[in-house]
């Protein structure tokens, strides 16, 4: 009651104040409407882009299935196919194109996969047995057991947000089988951390035996073999070649990294080991794989330079620790369009030399002892 009386005693608002409040209210309403219209336009644009993207994928799929794949050897290197390839492969043909592009130099058959898979299964059964009789092909039982343990541990950490490779998930046993069979097929390489991500991406796009064939052939490529066998001299060759193109394309950032003695091994190893499947969103990583299958190892390093170009302004403001942390865990909102426009801007030519020529001359320099080893690899 008292408050009502008090309100009655309050002086009436002046006309100016009432008008001002009304104006403020109208402005707020107008601003909210503007925001609403802007959001609606944005949603409409996103939907339009999505429809266009889906239409492009559908059209590209028809071209791949009807024209390119039936005439693979003739068409794979044509300009039209290379341009279409750059835009990303339709998911329905991705596995097939990857298999054809990677090839099967090792001549592995599905039957051979079954043989190595059954060997792996036998070893899993006799996991507890450590008799010397099981020590075959120069690999100790302890090493093999460690390898199998590492596979188990790594599978649980492979694309955890998808919940499909973890125990109980639909692809857990397939991933386990492919990795186990590989350790029997290549005991000289064994299982190395990071392999599970490569095998998982292949399993998502190919049937089990085909995934194994592509996996074994992919890991047999010079770059992958150098990294997975931890061949320091070959890894240094790749890092040194990368730095030539780093300096050529991003000289300011290159000098910034140099000032902190921040060498490529600190961030590149993880990127190359998993072919970006751990560092980038899965759909974007698959698009990187598309062009990697087209262009070979050079594209892995071009992608690395594309990432550095994309975040150049941010990285120039950071010190050693923050750069290392940032490049180890890239932002999750990284988009295909932005990254690929940065990759496209990277020139893979130093003066008149291309990647392979620079690579060959770096190898010669290393052999002559003219290159210093990278600090992180000295230990």
Automatic annotation (TrEMBL):
Keyword Coiled coil assigned: yes
Coiled-coil region list: 15-50
Pfam family, one: RabGAP-TBC
Keyword Coiled coil: yes
Keywords of the record: Coiled coil
All copies of domain Rab-GAP TBC, residue ranges: 88-296
One example of a Gene Ontology biological process annotation: vesicle-mediated transport
One Gene Ontology molecular-function label: GTPase activator activity
Domain of life per record: Eukaryota
GO cellular component: cytoplasmic vesicle; vacuole
The protein, known as: TBC1 domain family member 12 isoform X3
Organism listed in the record: Heterocephalus glaber (Naked mole rat)
